[in-house]
Write a structure and sequence with these properties.
Four copies of one chain form a homotetramer.
Chain A: H1 13-21, H2 33-36, H3 38-46, E1 51-55, H4 58-69, E2 74-79, H5 83-86, H6 91-95, E3 100-104, H7 113-121, E4 131-138, H8 149-161, E5 165-170, H9 173-180, E6 193-196, E7 207-211, H10 217-226, H11 235-245, H12 249-268, E8 280-284, H13 287-295, E9 301-302, E10 307-311, H14 318-329
Parallel strand pairs in A: 2-3, 2-4, 4-5, 5-6
Antiparallel strand pairs in A: 1-7, 6-7, 8-10, 9-10
């Protein structure tokens, strides 16, 4: 009974079907009909013109975006626990050629306008200090917290006021939209670039980098090739993404994962380290309690010395979820 | 009737089957059983210990290897028409942080020991000139030419004598081995790293970076993550590669492609720009002749103002091949 | 009456004399006799073998050292207020090709072994997180605090235990040694590399990068050239440095600056934000008080909204110092 | 009797005087009055508005310019024997973060419009090939050849037509202007950036990066700091440059060096490998002849197995020049 990560979940059958269907003769790279259709598909989804570019991983999506938005001598404001800071092995430094991540604080790994203002106020405007050009947030955050539409609007206004490009790391963007119940564009409003994740949500190996600032698209395409991410059989990546968009499968899958997490949250009560909004559940659990759960067949990651991270997925088995909820309640 | 590139060909059914079979619960990244089995599988294939690491593209395989072998202030000797020089959008400069490709000449895009010696002799050993640390060759070459085992031995000795690490770009390594009829290790002997290509040969999106210098493996794994190439569902990449190795499918596929190319070569006669050894056929064709062939439904790339590049694949339709051979003969 | 920074002070007459004396015919770069004598001069000063390499700025000295000690995917532990983090425009990211500065806390901009242990304990040993390879401290620190010999010994042991190379930013190393009254080697013990500053201490445009890990020297020389820091008339840089070493002029100058700072500290009493150990004095001063001092002709930098940084130099005019001390007392 | 290089020559007395005069109290970095006066001084010299920024070396001037003109994924067209390609240890790759130098041929290390057109025509306009954004030429060239004003105009038009920024490496720009006898602007017309060298021409350690495209200035200032080239006592660098401009000392010095070279050229007759236009003389000399000259006390570099490079300087001793001329004639 696996609750380690949604990135270990199976590939959705409709994604498989779409990939098989893509195996006809098609031009290589992103010259096939499927890849060529991404811009239109995402423009329709978001109700505004955008360019959409596949890449295999969230790390590459995030970093291609940042490298297009920030010069090598620049900086990116982000949360101290942002994925780009903690879990990408320095990939932003690689892709941006050494730009600095400037770390800010905020509850639940979310940033607030006041924190951004204060962070910027502490930077002298001279050649000795790194000047930030972008703001990167994660929706849902690294603790599964979601920015409400009015919070997004305030962040967007803050970024705009300071001349910062806004990047949204949406590795679990579907889960955020499923929770927020808002139109997708509201969940990332003001973003120049959104890393829209599908791999954790039923895909295999394709994420979409959605560029609302379409002027970044040519640059991203060059940099994608230069990073070795332009796959010759890209049609299979486009197929995955289009299958996820078709009939809003991405939203359906995210809702299923969120529902499972909510069931666990209900069972966890006072143990919750963070309110559960998406598909991640952070619990206070002692060593003995963790051992007890693992002894019953549940797998998950430790979170610090007295906690655990439990992640549900689009295909979390309802029986496993119910069993885990019961086991937590019984602790 | 498509002869544009083998990278546009279909995915082999056995690869599909292996991918589907990999869709059970497995740990993410390369902690799954399939990924963990790559070292042993390639060590068996080559008859010597090695580490093998999947990555999605030949460009990333080449550049991860070079970045592990060459410091940012160093250099790589390669042919003026090497893929790393001409077709990777500067990816070697990106991955190596600015190391220089030092370009050499050679017939058929192959390098000879004497050329390497002469190239090195022209470089002063001081801090003003870039000092090369690696030699990169392509097997089969960009013109489909293969290094014979004794040529590989001589190159390896040359590299060793000069303290250069040897990298082999094997985007079409299978085609080279199929032509040479030698044990695989002989086709890349002396290499510290081999980019073993599968995508052009029936795979979907997975190449193997084979490290005979196993000391490079940890470094490559870090850099792969840093480049955003550590896919969370890596099991599907390992599955592709293992399916290609199983029963020597890679060799069978390469033989089929080579056979098709040989049939075209036989028809081409004096039009051949290069002897056909692998699965690429370079022909002297006038504008009118190219138009005539295209008018009959054949697609291929121009090669300069009076030539064409025709590439066969593991699944080139025998009827299409026969038709093209006949059409060429009839010009 | 200038107390803005020691980097605005005049060049010492003996430095001028040495530069003029160097203007004979000499080979370029660092092939002249003066440059060739640096290794021996610093080995004698420190009582142990080392290589010493001139470079024009402290930023380049720091970053050449770090780039030689840390790979692009690595990290450097340093204080949150370290000069390399706050005042070099991201130069460490440039020279190291994107390695990360991992920020730690500590009073007076000094680091303690426990903080380093804790910082390292928070880093997972996997490919997802940046792994630090070096520790950089500043002697004297950015707040003019000095590491005592036993503190250096403890830091060196900590670095060694964790396999970290130790870099000492010694922009004001002379001031630290003058305060500590210990042999120079004790003030930087365990360091693989020391950026030994002379510009703030009577030089013009030459710092010494002292490499106790002599294995780094060839690498630093290559990287110095690659960074455009190998001046063709390097003899003038070596001349400055040798003049500073001759008769321990560096120590005499530093003592003079420290003495001036001590006089100001005595006058400042409870206004001191940090104990004064070297040649920097940080004072609590209101807007009105700062204005009052400036009205009397004293120039210095604000330090936050209610403070000031006053820096003395080797040639601070005793009358100016006395006047400022009196003015502070009279506030 | 030293003819190794003009970069080993003495510093001009007027430069010394100006440096000494600069040793009053001044703000650090480039906030002093001298540094602040550079823009006006060069605007006057060239008769058009420009920004001028000091840096210690020609390599850093060249590379700061290129990094401001070319993105990391871009390319620079230059001659195969350009200094940036052959003698800067890969510094362009470092400063530009991996952009490619695309090498062209041309007699005397000069480029012609037709060569540039042909070089560009060979590059496909797709994401697989590196796209050049700049053209870099050397005035006077690495073989001491000068671009005439009409040649500069043609190159500028070519660059403009292709959307390439034009960079002029003017390590010996003074020698070129002295030879051409034209207004300085004509010798670099169309350039966005000129590396105007002074070190080889009587300076100590300061070159001027002249930006006719003033939009590059802020970027260059940030990158200069990031490269560790913003010296705190920059006033001494500005002083050198202004002394060289004062009364056209740069031109006077260059004329003296050219005159000495012309005397040697007259003596060399049929031995000249290149017409002598600036202050470099390339001669066909056998091993025995080189040994004979060295036996008479002349020092110079070999140039290949049967040649020599002789460089004169602003202060070449007329007696030494006459002696060398006679010795060559007598061979």
């Amino acid at each position: 009974m696996q609750f380690l990560s949604d990135n270990a979940a199976a590939v959705h059958p409709k994604v498989w079907d779409a990939m098989r269907a893509a195996d006809g003769p098609q031009p290589p790279y992103d010259n096939d009909g499927l890849s060529q259709g991404l811009d239109a598909a995402f423009s329709a989804l978001f109700g505004r013109p955008c360019a959409a570019i596949w890449t295999a991983t969230g790390t590459s999506a995030n970093c291609l975006a940042l490298a297009a938005m920030v010069p090598p001598h620049g900086g990116v404001l982000c949360h101290r626990e942002a994925h780009i800071e903690t879990d990408e092995c320095g990939a932003p430094g690689f892709y941006t050629h050494g730009a600095k991540l400037i770390l800010l604080e905020g509850e639940g790994a979310k940033l607030a306008p006041g924190t951004i203002d204060a962070g910027l106020a502490a930077i002298r405007k001279d050649v000795h200090q790194v000047q930030p050009q972008a703001l990167s947030i994660t929706q849902a955050s690294e603790y599964g917290r979601c920015y409400r539409p009015h919070e997004m609007a305030a962040l967007a206004a803050t970024a705009d006021r300071h001349g910062l490009g806004l990047h949204v790391d949406g590795a679990r963007f579907g889960n955020a939209v499923a929770f927020l119940g808002c139109p997708p564009w509201q969940a990332c409003q003001g973003a120049a670039a959104l890393s829209f994740g599908f791999v954790k949500n039923g895909g295999m190996g394709a994420e979409a980098l959605v560029l609302f600032d379409q002027g970044l698209a040519d640059l991203v395409r060059l940099r994608r090739k230069r990073a070795g991410h332009l796959q010759s059989k890209g049609r299979f990546m486009a197929a995955q993404i289009l299958a996820m968009l078709d009939g809003d499968l991405w939203l359906e899958n995210a809702r299923a994962a969120n529902l499972a997490a909510a069931a666990l949250a209900a069972a966890a009560g006072g143990r919750l380290m963070h309110p559960v909004e998406a598909n991640e559940v952070f619990l206070v659990l002692s060593d003995a309690e963790r051992a007890a759960l693992r002894g019953q067949g549940f797998s998950f990651y430790d979170w610090g010395p007295a906690g655990a991270r439990i992640v549900t997925a689009w295909n979390s088995d309802p029986d496993h979820v119910a069993a885990l909820a019961q086991a937590i309640s019984a602790l």
